[in-house]
Amino acid sequence: MLRLGVNIDHVATIRNARGSSYPEPVRAAELALAAGADGITAHLREDRRHISDADIAVLTDLCLKRGKPLNFEMAVTDEMVGIAMNAKPHAACLVPERREEVTTEGGLDVVKGANRIADATARLRTVGARVSLFIEPDHAQIQASADVGAQVVELHTGAYCDAARAGETERAAAILDRLKSGAAFAASLGLEVHAGHGIDYATVKPVAAIPQIVELNIGHFLIGEAIFVGLPQAILRMRTLMDAARLEHPAKVEAGFA
């Protein structure tokens, strides 16, 4: 079964816009888990623009009590590695981060940053965190991810989703082929394969149908859709589309679950 991780960062964005104490990200996490999410993702940025250190503490407690994984997205910095080692999340997903970006733009360059990423990966693994690297579906980046000791790769689906929404059919098909090839290559190296970024109702099924992918992480779209229909309803519809994609295209590989 394909897992769904729900990123609740942008509940905190709304809260911080007014400098108030609500809406609370932990409440969104509770609703998401009750609605069928398999885990919670939160990105603690260096500038603390949305999720805060206090949010990570309460989300960690919630996920432990519910027996669900917390996926801690983070930049590859000593500060973030230290926070993650203290929080001991189920998973730590290393992502590129620039202070001026609106959202994460593109994948981590593991080839160029191999030494720094290998060190962070080794430190995180000492506290039991499963280390995931957010990368482009490029074979060189995937091989480098295995070489530095990551257990998981999360393939960046943003370019595919943008092309599909823009009606750029040929470009979208080419990027989807890269995602399929990357997922198959990663699985052949023994890496668990996740995917995320930019996914909505219109783009989820082709990604969900890739058999080696065992988890999708989706945030901004679900939080936005929740404004109109409620978070449980938004998650239920996404979950239904994901499951339908797997029924229409049954997996032909054995996927490892942690």
From TrEMBL:
It catalyses: 3-amino-2-oxopropyl phosphate + 1-deoxy-D-xylulose 5-phosphate = pyridoxine 5'-phosphate + phosphate + 2 H2O + H(+). The record marks 154 as: Transition state stabilizer. InterPro entries: Aldolase_TIM, PyrdxlP_synth_PdxJ, Pyridoxine-5'_phos_synth. It is found in: Cytoplasm. One of its GO terms (molecular function) is pyridoxine 5'-phosphate synthase activity. Its EC number is 2.6.99.2. 1-deoxy-D-xylulose 5-phosphate binds at residues 9-10, 45, 50, 103. SUPFAM superfamilies: Pyridoxine 5'-phosphate synthase. One of its GO terms (cellular component) is cytosol. It comes from the Bacteria. Keywords: Cytoplasm, Pyridoxine biosynthesis, Transferase. GO terms for biological process: pyridoxine biosynthetic process. Catalyzes the complicated ring closure reaction between the two acyclic compounds 1-deoxy-D-xylulose-5-phosphate (DXP) and 3-amino-2-oxopropyl phosphate (1-amino-acetone-3-phosphate or AAP) to form pyridoxine 5'-phosphate (PNP) and inorganic phosphate. This is Pyridoxine 5'-phosphate synthase. It comes from Caulobacter flavus. The lineage of its organism: Bacteria, Pseudomonadati, Pseudomonadota, Alphaproteobacteria, Caulobacterales.
